[in-house]
Amino acid sequence: MKLIQITDLHVASEGEFTHGVDVRQNFLDILQAAKSFSPDYLILSGDLAYDTANEQVYRWMKSQLDDLGIPYAPIGGNHDNSALLARVFGLEHLLTDGDLYYKLPLPNHTLLLLETSNGTISEAQLAWLANELTQLDAPAVIFMHHPPVEGGVPYMDVNYPLRNMVEVQEVLYQHPFPVYIFCGHYHVEKMLCVKNLVVHITPTTYFQMKWQQPEFLLDHLRIGLREINLRSDGVVESAVVYYDGNKT
Ligand SMILES: [Fe+2]
Q1: SS3 239
Q2: CA distance 138 to 176
Q3: What separation in Å is there between the alpha carbon of 76 and the centre of ligand 1?
Q4: Cα(108) to centroid of ligand 1, in Å?
Q5: In three state form, how does the secondary structure of 51-110 look?
Q6: Consecutive H or E run containing 139
Q7: Mind listing the pLDDT tens digit for each residue in 176-231?
Q8: What confidence score (pLDDT) does residue 108 get?
């Protein structure tokens, strides 16, 4: 089972100022790059919207995704409106109290897709997650916008972390198997191993940040995706691939 993760698309309205980055062309390019891997599924792990959620932008993105012919699943990021996202993408039946979190059953694997768009995971969602994990007699594969651990990226860890990560970690640490977590949000590429958690932070299709400094510093404008192979023996492999980005 091969997945492609793309994240932090930050697609703007046509003509909107995006600091010199052609985010719309980047989105179109990353879709074609994703298609070249012939994946079984494409996961969009949040921040589809440039800054503020916009129905027209979501509709344009959906039409491009539908044309691609690859099954796909979105979740919201802190720049998204999950209820609007669910409505435009026909996922309203998956909303719980306005939150878009759900499980995605695939052959031999079940993915858990979480909602962190307001920077936290609700108590109800945490209870749902704990219950799903107890039913899973195998490694877990989770997609969520915010990393559930500190990323060693001072600017993001201090200013924009998942605020209740300690409570979330307590639930994840209970799982007696590895938990593979694929996120975005940080605009860096990183892999962190904490106890049973293997956390992959995937680069964006907007810009990448320098991760070392406490202040915001641009690193580069190449765009990335992550190829993920869920092997039948339970091993999860992944690799990031970069492409040139587009300027306006
Ligand atoms: Fe984000």
Answers
A1: strand
A2: 8
A3: 9
A4: 30
A5: CCCCHHHHHHHHHHHHHHCCCEEEECCCCCCHHHHHHHCCCHHHEECCEECEEEEECCEE
A6: none
A7: 999 999 999 999 999 999 999 999 999 999 999 999 999 999 999 999 999 999 99
A8: 86
Residue 196 CA to residue 85 CA, distance in Å, equals 32
Distance CA 21, CA 128 (A): 39
Q: Where are the domains of the chain?
A: 2-243
The yes-or-no verdict on residue 1 having pLDDT over 90 is: yes
Alpha-carbon distance of 237 to 229, in angstroms, equals 5
- Order of all β-strands in the sheet with 197-201: 102-106, 109-113, 140-143, 179-183, 197-201, 190-194
Q: How many residues does this entry show for the chain?
A: 248
Distance 78 CA to ligand 1 centre (A): 5
Does 236 have pLDDT greater than 90? Answer: yes
Q: How far is the CA of 69 from the centre of ligand 1 (A)?
A: 26
User: 61 CA to middle of ligand 1, Å?
Assistant: 18
pTM for the model:
0.98
For ligand 1, the distance from its centroid to the CA atom of residue 187, given in whole angstroms, is 8
Give the CATH superfamily of 2-243.
Answer: Metallo-dependent phosphatases (3.60.21.10)
Question: Mean pLDDT for the chain?
Answer: 97
Residue 233: pLDDT band with limits 50, 70, 90: confident
* pLDDT higher than 90, residue 234: no
145 Cα–ligand 1 center, Å: 7
